[in-house]
Amino acid sequence: MACTGGNPPDEVSFSFVIVHLGCRDMKAHVELKDELSSVTEWGANVRTERHQPDYILMITVLMLTGIGVVTIYSASMVYDLHMGLSPGHFAVRQLAAAILGLVAFAVCTYIPYHFWYRHAAKCLLASVALLLLVMVPGIGHRSLGASRWIGTSSFHLQPSELAVIAIVLYLAFLLTKKLPVLHDSKRALRPALVITYLLTILVFAEPDMGTAMTLFLSATVLLFASGLRIKPLVLTLAVSFGLGVLGAHMASYRSSRLTAFFHPFQHAQTSGYQLVQGLTAIANGGWTGRGFAASISSTGYLPESYTDFIFAVFTEEWGWLGDIGLLAIFAVLIWRGFHIARYARDRFGSLLAIGLTSTIIIQAAINLGAVTWMLPVTGIPLPFISYGGTDVAINLLAAGILMSVSRETGLVMPEEDTIADIISVDELRAERSQSESTEAKFPSLQQPARVTRLSSRRGRKRGNAQTRQQDVGAPARSQRNLSLSWRAQQEMASDRRGRQNGRNSESSRDKRNRGKR
C-alpha cells in the first residue's frame, strides 16, 4: 500500500469494521502499518468463514462406530452359528449400515448447516408422514407386537429414529425464528409444545415408549437452552411425567418392566430374567474382563445380547477398565458437542449442536441406566454400539450435521455468557451514533449495548408495559428489533479489544514521536 502526501485517507475494510486512517509520508505509513496489524489481529478473532471441521469429534465418532461393529461381532457370533448363519452375519449388516452412515456423515459435514434452517419444516412434515405411514397395514412392518419399521425383512427403516432428528431441527429453527417474542408463551412455547407432543404421541402409539422418551427429553433440553421461562417448562415436565407414568401402566408388558425394575430377583425367571443376566455379566467382567469373544452371557444366557444389553457383554469381555475407556470416549464426544455449541456463530447453530448432542446423551444415559439397574428397561439402544442399522446411520448423520456447525465456529468465546441473551438493536444504534461524535479516529468502534437477559424476564407477569420499557429503553408498544444471536456479542467483544488495541497503538506512536523530537 503506497501513501503520498495530499491523497485522501485510505479506507481499509475488515469483516465488520472499516477503519479510516490517513498518512502523509513514509513515517506515517509505518505507523499506519502498526495500527493496521493490531486491528487485523483482533479482527481475525471474529472470523466466521468456513474452516476445518472438528477432527477430535470425527475421530471420536469413528472410534465408537468401530467399537460397535467389533462388539456386535463378538456378542452375536454364537447366536449366528446357532441360527445357521455365518459368524459375522449381524456384524456385516451393521458394517454396511455404518458405511452408509459414514457417507451421510461426510456429505452433511460439507453441507452448510443453514441448509437445515431453510428445510426444517419440510423435514418435520416428512417425519410426520413416515410416522403415519408406518401404522398403515401392509406398509408398516410389525414385529414383537409393535409396528415400528417400514420395509421388507432384509431392509428396515425406523421412522421414529428420524423423528428425533426432525424435532431437533425444527425446534432449533422455531426457537431461533421466535426469538423476538420468546417471552410470550402463546407465540413461542405453545407451538413448540404442540409439535413436540404430536411427534411424541405418534411414536408412543407404535408403540415405542423408549424412543418417545428420547424425543420428548431432547425437545425439553432445547426448550430450556433457548431461554424460555422456567415456570411453564417445569409445569410441562410435571404434567408429562404424570402422563408418562399413566402410559406405562396402560400396557401389560410396560407394567411388567416396572415390576422387574423394582423386584428383579423375585422375577428372575420371567420379566426380570434379562436384567438379572445382564447384572451377572457385568459382575463376571471384573476389572480386566474375560477377553475378546470370551463372554459367557452371549452364548445364550442373555437374550438379545447384541442389541439393548450389549454394554453387559462389553463389560464382561473388557472389564470395568474397558467401561471407563468407553465412557471416556462418550465424554469426549459430549465435550466437543457442547464446545461447538458454545462457539457457534449464531443461535440456530448453537441450538442445533445442543439438541444433537443431547440426543446422544439421553440415549446413552437411558441405555446404561437400564443395563445397570438404575432405570427400567425401555429398549433404547446404546448409540453407535448396539446393533441397529437405522440407529447407527441416523447417529452418524446427526454427527455430520454437528461437524458442519463446527466448520463455522468463532475463534473466541462470546463475552456474554448464554445464548439466551437478547441485545436491543435500537439501543445499540443509539449508543453507536453517540460514540461517533467522540471517537473520531475509530468511528465504527462503538460502545457495547446493554444486554437484557432472558433470565430477568422469567417469572415476569405479562402486560407490564412499563417494565418492558425500562428493560429495552423503548416505548412499550413500539417495535423492538432484536438481534438473533452471538454474532453481535462477538462483534461487541471485538470492538472492546479493538478500542484497547487502538489506544495502545496511539500511545506507542506518541511515544515514538516524542522520542524523535
UniProtKB/TrEMBL annotation:
Recorded superkingdom: Bacteria
Topology term for the membrane: Multi-pass membrane protein
Biased composition (Polar residues): 478-492
GO BP of this protein: cell division; peptidoglycan biosynthetic process; regulation of cell shape
Keywords: Cell cycle, Cell division, Cell shape, Glycosyltransferase, Membrane, Peptidoglycan synthesis, Transferase, Transmembrane, Transmembrane helix
Predominant place of localization: membrane
EC number: 2.4.99.28
InterPro entries: FtsW/RodA (IPR001182)
Cellular compartments annotated: Membrane
Pfam families tied to this protein: FTSW_RODA_SPOVE
Spans traversing the lipid bilayer: 55-75, 95-116, 123-140, 160-176, 188-205, 211-228, 233-253, 318-338, 350-372, 384-405
Reaction catalyzed: [GlcNAc-(1->4)-Mur2Ac(oyl-L-Ala-gamma-D-Glu-L-Lys-D-Ala-D-Ala)](n)-di-trans,octa-cis-undecaprenyl diphosphate + beta-D-GlcNAc-(1->4)-Mur2Ac(oyl-L-Ala-gamma-D-Glu-L-Lys-D-Ala-D-Ala)-di-trans,octa-cis-undecaprenyl diphosphate = [GlcNAc-(1->4)-Mur2Ac(oyl-L-Ala-gamma-D-Glu-L-Lys-D-Ala-D-Ala)](n+1)-di-trans,octa-cis-undecaprenyl diphosphate + di-trans,octa-cis-undecaprenyl diphosphate + H(+)
GO annotation, cellular component aspect: cell division site; plasma membrane
Chain positions covered by the region annotation Disordered: 434-517
One Gene Ontology molecular-function label: peptidoglycan glycosyltransferase activity
Family statement: Belongs to the SEDS family. FtsW subfamily.
Function noted in UniProt: Peptidoglycan polymerase that is essential for cell division.
Protein name: Probable peptidoglycan glycosyltransferase FtsW
